[in-house]
Amino acid sequence: MTELLFHDDSYLKEFEATVEELVENGVVLDRTAFYIGGGGQPADVGDLTSGDGTYRVHRVARSSGKIIHQIEGPLPLAGSRVTGRVDWDLRYNLMRTHTALHILCGVVWRDYGAHVTGGDMKPGEARMDFELEKMTAQFAEEIEEKINLEVAAARDVVAAKVSRAEADQIPDLIRTKINLLPAGITEVRTINITGLDLQADGGTHVANTSEVGVIKVVGHESKGRINKRLRIALAEQ
To answer: How many folded domains does the chain comprise?
Structure first.
C-alpha cells in the first residue's frame, strides 16, 4: 500500500520512492507526496526522475485500491528508485483555496448552522453550496467580511488523525448534509482551523489562515429552495 506523505506534510515538494509496479500508462510507488484528489480538490501533477529519465505525471488517482501515477510516454523500470517533484505553484494555490473553503464553511456553520451540500475548487477559485433558504447580495458581503477577519486572525491550521470511534464522538465533525465517510474507515484525518473549524478531511492545507490571503465572494446564486451557492476567488499574491 502506498504511503501517503502529503497527509503528514502538505509542504513536501520532493520525495524519494521505489516503483513497485507498472500498470497501463502509469506506475505504483511505495510512497508519494502527490495528492490523489478527492473532496473537491484536484490531484497533483509533477515529475518523476530516475537516472537520466524524466517522466511527466499528469494525473494521480486511486484504482482498484492502488494509487496510480499516470505518466505520458515511456515508464520508469519496475524496482527503480525515483525522485518525485510536485508542481508546487499548483499545489500551493490549491492548498490556499482549500483552506479558504474551510474558513467559509466554518463561518457559515458557526453563524448560521448550515450544512454543506456540495463544493468544488480549482486553483484560486471555488464554490460551496449550503443548506440555506435565502441568499442575498448583502448576505454575501457580510460573509466576505467575516471570512477575511478569520484570515487576518492568523489561525493555525493543524492536521491530525483520530480513531473512527473517537471521530464518531466529535460533534459536527462531518459538515456535509450526507456523511461521506465509508463505514470501513478505522482512522479519520481531521483539519482543525484553531478556534474556528474542525472537520474530517483528507486534503492539503496551508499551516495558517494568513497564508490564504484576501478572499473575495465573487458570486452567489440559488440552486434550489434550500440550496444556495457562494463562489469565492483568492487575490493574487
So the answer is: 2
Closest CA to 221 of 138, 148, 129: 129
The residues with which 23 forms a beta bridge, in sequence order, are 26
Write out pLDDT tens, residues 70-81: 998 899 999 999
Does residue 79 contact residue 37 with C-beta atoms inside 8 Å? no
The residue assigned the cell 448534509 is 177
CATH of the domain at 59: 2.40.30.130
Please give the helix or strand (H or E) that residue 48 lies within, else none. strand 46-50
Please state, as a whole number, how many other Cβ atoms lie within 10 Å of the Cβ of residue 145. 11
Question: C-alpha angle 112/116/119, rounded to 5°?
Answer: 130
- Please state the pTM of the whole predicted model: 0.93
Whether residues 46 and 157 share a domain: the answer is: no
Kind and range of the H or E run holding 93: helix 88-112
- Average pLDDT of the residues of the chain: 92
